[in-house]
Amino acid sequence: MEKVALTTDVSTATSARAHERMSRRKNLAGLCAATVVCILLLYASQRYTANNYGTEYFRPRERTANQRILNSHKYYGSRSYGGPAGATSYDTYPPIAAVHNSTISIEDVLNYQRALIAASFDDASFGDGKLHSLTPETGGRPRRSLIITTWRSGSTFLGDILNALPGNYYHYEPLLDFDIVQIRGPPNDSVALHNLRHLLRCNYNEMENYLDFGRTHNYLFSHNTRLWQQCLRFPQFCYEPKFLGPFCQLFPLQSMKVVRLRAALVAPLLEDESLNVRVVLLIRDPRGSLQSRRHRVWCPDHPDCYDPATVCSDMQQDYEAAIDLSERFPKRFRVIRYEDLSLDPYGKTKEILDFYGLPFHPEVKAFLDTHTTQDIGGVSSTYRDSKTAPFHWTKELTFDYVKHVQDSCVSAMRNWGYRNATSERELYDNFNPLLEYRFS
Ligand SMILES: *[C@@H]1O[C@H](CO)[C@@H](O)[C@H](O)[C@H]1NC(C)=O
Ligand SMILES: *[C@@H]1O[C@H](CO)[C@@H](O)[C@H](O)[C@H]1NC(C)=O
Ligand SMILES: *[C@@H]1O[C@H](CO)[C@@H](O)[C@H](O)[C@H]1NC(C)=O
């Protein structure tokens, strides 16, 4: 009996030890797995940050660093194209509780948005401006702000600065459906200008190509955060001209950025007094934009995007157009280099807003506070320093490639004030690519 008991005891003890060993092994395996997952996540988030900074990031404004951390999953969960990138809004959206979804009408959504704009719009910061003198639906004249640029030149940054203003409606890249091409003249310029004019006037009729593209590519609308917020709730209305037109007309500020239309082609828009549009041409060092484009799968197969001679010929044409346009429309056309904006984000943003007739609103300041400095509340790794971001190419391109670009860009670089690098060593030694420059 005792013996049996002893044996049982021993065997129990043995099995317990075996069990313990096994569970320790399991723990170890679990720990290893967890470590691997952590490393992968860390790696992914770093890659993610490195590759997405620049002209494609989307980060909603948040009030405090803590809130940013609390909400950080929202960015990572939603930033990729196709996801609900506009899920977090610049404005505060209380739920529409009173109306049942199935009975909600376009009119209900418009009323709701109209109330939101009235509550968030800051009349006082617009000298002449009462809201109704600016909103198209009341026969007002909206402030129309257009950014003309090309791929990977800082336009998402500048576009989001404008979109931080309460009451802004953001026509994000209206020529997306043209694919990776530049529009320089006939035959496609007439369709392109048709689309731009229609959108600037909030007219979504005869825009089927554009709307069809949007139905299958969320990013056409998701950067337009105030629209996207309602699209997420009421997908049944999102691509309907009879919703989009009146919705757009609620907004006193209308901004647009275009990367596929060369500068000379905006002349007819500037000539049209009734449009009242102001245009900023945003320029970037071709070595910087080409370096950034290397990381985009959609770019290298297209010469308009990736061939230095083609890219720089467009830059040179833009220079000649800019001289003409700034003579003819001194109050409605101006030029800015991305590098100058990045080195002095507050000063240049004030200048640009002033040019557009827009206030340097606290929301804009809050946006710059969170998007231009490296060291904020423990999330520094996801926030790049705007002062170094435009110059990464100096460390990442080989001198051979830099020389190849420079040789293809002689007049464009001279005219836009970019300095040649003369050796690999010079590039690595805090190379300053900017020449003293004033566009006149
Ligand atoms: C642009 O023009 C070309 C003809 O040169 C045509 O093949 C192409 O379909 C046009 N693209 C658009 C989007 O209209
Ligand atoms: C409202 O109803 C439509 C179908 O009519 C549906 O697709 C949509 O997801 C609903 N929206 C919300 C917020 O429940
Ligand atoms: C830059 O280098 C090119 C040759 O690669 C030369 O033709 C051009 O004059 C140089 N530009 C300046 C401003 O020195």
From TrEMBL:
Ranges of residues in domain Sulfotransferase: 143-374
InterPro entries for this protein = Gal/GlcNAc/GalNAc_ST, P-loop_NTPase, Sulfotransferase_dom
Q: Which organism is it from?
A: Anopheles atroparvus
From the UniProt annotation, give the residues forming the signal peptide: none
> Which residues are listed as membrane-spanning?
27-45
Q: Name one GO molecular function term.
A: N-acetylglucosamine 6-O-sulfotransferase activity
The keyword Transmembrane helix is assigned to this record: yes
One GO biological process this protein is involved in is: sulfur compound metabolic process
Protein name as annotated = Sulfotransferase domain-containing protein
Which keywords label this protein? Answer: Membrane, Transmembrane, Transmembrane helix
The keyword NAD appears for this protein: no
